[in-house]
Design goal:
Layout lengths: L4 E2 L5 E2 L4 E9 L3 H13 L3 E5 L12 E2 L1 H10 L2 H7 L1 E2 L2 E7 L7 E5 L9 E6 L11 E2 L2 H15 L6 E3 L1 E8 L12 E7 L2 H4 L24 H8 L6 E11 L6 H6 L3 E19 L8 E5 L3 E7 L5 E6 L18 H12 L4 E19 L3 E2 L3 E3 L5 E2 L7 H20 L9 H26 L14 H15 L18 H4 L14 H8 L15 E4 L5 E3 L10 E8 L4 H14 L5 H4 L16 E7 L8 H4 L7 E2 L3 E2 L4 E3 L2 E2 L3 E2 L2 H5 L7 E5 L5 E5 L4 H9 L6 E3 L2 E3 L22
Parallel strand pairs: 3-4, 3-14, 4-11, 14-21, 25-26, 26-29
Antiparallel strand pairs: 1-2, 5-10, 6-10, 7-8, 7-9, 12-13, 13-14, 15-18, 15-19, 16-17, 17-18, 19-22, 20-21, 23-24, 23-29, 25-32, 27-28, 30-31, 32-33, 34-35
Helix pairs in contact: 1-4, 1-9, 2-3, 10-11
Length: 734
């Protein structure tokens, strides 16, 4: 019988259940459930825990930028978000002439009919950047879509375990290089329903988010853990291959690892309210920013179901010398009275307030995004900023959209472990760009408007408009451009184009001149950026598709063959030569077959899918006659693959996508593009550059070895560091 006793901390010692998982996710917010969605897709044994007893039902984040909507679509539920969301279409800049009641600067969706003079209008999402536009929908609905998706793809094996808190985390550094080991040990504690319930701190009957606010929240993990001591069945030990900390701005995971957030808090304090307003303000259903010379700024964000979110600057609340603000003032009535002063001479009132909170603007970036490529941090755990630009939920989800497929492929033995280094290099650079953007955005909204052209201290209307237009690309999530690594083949210094951390270099050395020549083959498909979407038709059925929809988040790389004019004898010869190399026994395509070990699909295209877009007339083209079999492989169970060859031609009902023109590809000669599982472009080249395609996959995947053209398992050779596979990948000692 186990000996039971009380430790010096008051903990009950004894036998606790012990489990093993591939991935443990700490935190079930947007970042955490994005990670869980990838793990469900990749077939990994995963647990996701959260200390709170319930998901979000109101409030919190509400903005979905264009890139996030594309990501949700790739996961299979973008249509649900699109149908329920409020779409942001147009932005108009306006300024009211100076008066004793109000001097303001405005961003809105249509011209003001009353007192405002000057008007400039621009699309909210720049035209042509994406087929989807920025939208608003509250976080709770988005989380519901994720949870349904996770249930579907995990066969209901991955569920958010609520009221569960990590107590300790240890990394066995002697095991971090062993891909079969479980080097991370996390002890968990189980809370009661009462302990796990978020406290309502604002003294109001209306739901508030103050328990997450940097004005109110205090770390309560230690106190909650102490309350579990002495209760039977409140502990568990988990051994994990990988841990992802998505536990917010006061991240327990980050603190336990000894990492910090670098940056500073400002003296700007804002309140937030979700209300159904009664007002004579003409554009309450438009995105607006109103800036008063004396009362601060107000941002209006229209929401679903007639809700409107108000971001209200609280100029009467100032932090003291210690950086603390007088929190007793901050109530819904106080916040709303500030809004009424800013919007005057218009009137505003409400009966229904769905949610409210307050926060102090702080802009910080984590010093590290991972520990030993075994414990990773994402979302608010590694970057904090103001919410007005609508980037919090978006950047957090995009962090784990970047990490999830890498972790999944490495954990399944399909990709080389060194690709995990690119997570920090790529995403920490984006986090720093985010903070720079947020600094400018917050200053523009919180600074005093200029009275005239001689007012150097105020923010001018021209400056405001220019910054908004320039920042819109970033705000849409479409300006991300990843630097060189073994996942992105481009020239330049990888550390300079990343966050300064080391990554595996590109497997193909490339000069700036070589890169420019290759990039000119597809000017609309920039290497390092996400693959844009234009309409193409399925060759066999004539069904129109947005091509991005043929790049679902299933963990596969894609080689996109722009086959050009396949009716040209010279071009057909080039295609056949490329396909012969592609179908050779030693090619990456045959050596990367997953073998039906739990992936989303099996067979020839199970790790790298080949997609073709040609430019000839569809009616004059036949799939089986004009295309080599490797482009549409045959399986006895499913027949020919009719979903892999597309054409840039006119749809009966949807018009002409003109994909070749929009992608900047020559319609005669075409080109080849490698696309990562997260839809980012890894390489562009000629059909004759097959060796570079082969080198790319040799540099990032674990490929099977071949002897005399026959597949075999990787052969280990001796090395001072231990057994090494023939392609250079460390093999575990068994």
């Amino acid at each position: 019988m186990a000996t039971v006793g009380i430790s010096a901390t008051g903990e009950t010692n004894g036998t606790q259940p012990t489990t093993t998982v591939d991935v443990l996710i700490i935190g079930a917010g947007p970042a955490g459930i994005m990670a869980a969605a990838w793990m469900a897709r990749m077939g990994l044994k995963t647990r996701i825990i959260d200390k709170r007893n319930t998901k979000v039902f109101c409030g919190q984040a509400d903005g979905l930028n264009a890139r996030s909507l594309e990501m949700l679509d790739s996961l299979g539920f973008g249509d649900r978000a699109w149908k329920e969301a409020n779409h942001m279409i147009e932005v108009c800049t306006k300024r009211r002439p100076h008066s004793k009641t109000l001097e303001c600067r405005m961003l809105t969706l249509k011209p003001y009919r009353y007192v405002y003079g000057r008007s400039d209008r621009v699309p909210d999402t720049p035209v042509g950047l994406s087929r989807l536009q920025q939208s608003t929908l509250h976080q709770g609905r988005i989380e519901r879509f994720f949870l349904d998706n996770i249930k579907k793809y995990s066969n209901d094996t991955i569920k958010v375990e609520r009221g569960v808190l990590p107590e300790s985390l240890e990394i066995d550094q002697s095991k971090v290089e062993d891909q079969n080991a479980y080097p991370v040990t996390v002890k968990l504690r189980f809370l009661t329903e009462e302990e796990a319930a978020p406290r309502q701190l604002g003294g109001s009957k209306v739901s508030d988010g103050l328990f997450r606010s940097n004005l109110f929240q205090e770390a309560d993990e230690d106190a909650l853990i102490r309350q579990t001591y002495g209760r039977a069945g409140t502990g568990e030990t988990v051994h994990a291959k990988y841990v992802i900390g998505c536990d917010g701005a006061r991240s327990w995971t980050r603190t336990t690892l000894g990492f910090e957030l670098e940056g500073e808090a400002t003296d700007m304090i804002w309140g937030v309210m979700d209300i159904i307003p009664f007002t004579d303000f003409p554009d309450i259903r438009c995105r607006c920013a109103i800036h008063s010379a004396t009362h601060g700024s107000l941002m209006i964000i229209p929401r679903e179901n007639n809700l409107v979110r108000l971001y209200i600057q609280l100029v009467e609340v100032k932090p003291d010398a210690s950086g603390r603000a007088d929190r007793t003032k901050i109530t819904p009535d106080f916040i709303f009275n500030a809004a009424k002063k800013i919007i005057d001479p218009y009137k505003i009132d409400y009966e229904v307030c769905d949610w409210w909170t307050a926060y102090q603007i702080g802009q910080r970036v984590g010093t590290n995004f991972d520990a030993h490529q075994r414990v990773f941090l994402a979302g608010d755990a590694v970057h904090t900023h103001s919410p007005k630009a609508g980037q919090g939920m978006n950047i957090s989800m995009q962090d784990c959209y970047n990490l999830g497929w890498k972790l999944g492929l490495v954990c399944r033995g399909i990709a080389q472990p060194n690709i995990l280094k690119t997570y920090q290099s790529e995403r920490r650079r984006i986090a720093r760009d985010l903070i720079d953007f947020d600094n400018r955005f917050a200053r523009l909204f919180s600074g005093r408007p200029a009275k005239d052209i001689l007012d150097a201290e105020g923010v001018s209307m021209d400056e405001f408009k220019e910054a908004f237009v320039q920042g819109n690309m970033f705000a849409c999530g479409l300006s991300v451009n990843y630097g060189p690594s073994n996942l992105v083949l481009k020239p330049g210094n990888a550390e300079d184009q990343g966050d300064g951390s080391a990554v595996a270099p590109p497997s193909v050395a490339m000069s700036e001149a070589d890169f420019s020549r290759k990039q000119a083959l597809a000017t609309g498909i920039p290497v390092g950026m996400r693959f844009n979407s234009f309409q193409v038709l399925n060759q066999s059925s004539a069904q129109p598709w947005q091509f991005q929809q043929r790049l679902p988040a299933d963990g596969r790389f894609r080689v996109v063959l722009f086959a050009g004019n396949i009716h040209s004898a010279q071009q057909k010869e080039r295609i056949e030569s490329f396909c012969a190399k592609l179908d050779a026994p030693g090619s990456f395509l045959h050596r990367s077959i997953s073998g039906g070990d739990g992936g989303v699909c099996d067979g020839l295209h199970s790790v790298v899918e080949i997609l073709t877009i040609h430019s000839a007339k569809r009616w004059d083209t036949e799939l089986l006659r004009d295309f080599p079999e490797v482009l549409h492989p045959f399986r006895k169970a499913t027949g020919w693959s009719y979903d892999k060859v597309y054409v840039d031609d006119v749809s009966y009902h949807e018009g002409f996508g003109d994909a070749y023109k929009n992608y900047g590809v020559d319609k005669e000669r075409g080109c080849v593009v490698i696309v990562r599982p997260d839809q980012y472009v890894a390489w562009v080249g000629e059909l004759e550059d097959f060796d570079e395609v082969q080198a790319y996959f040799e540099g990032c995947l674990v490929l099977k070895d071949y002897k005399n053209g026959v597949a075999s398992s990787p052969v280990a050779v001796s090395s001072p560091e231990g057994p090494v596979a023939t392609n250079g990948i460390s093999m575990p000692v068994r």
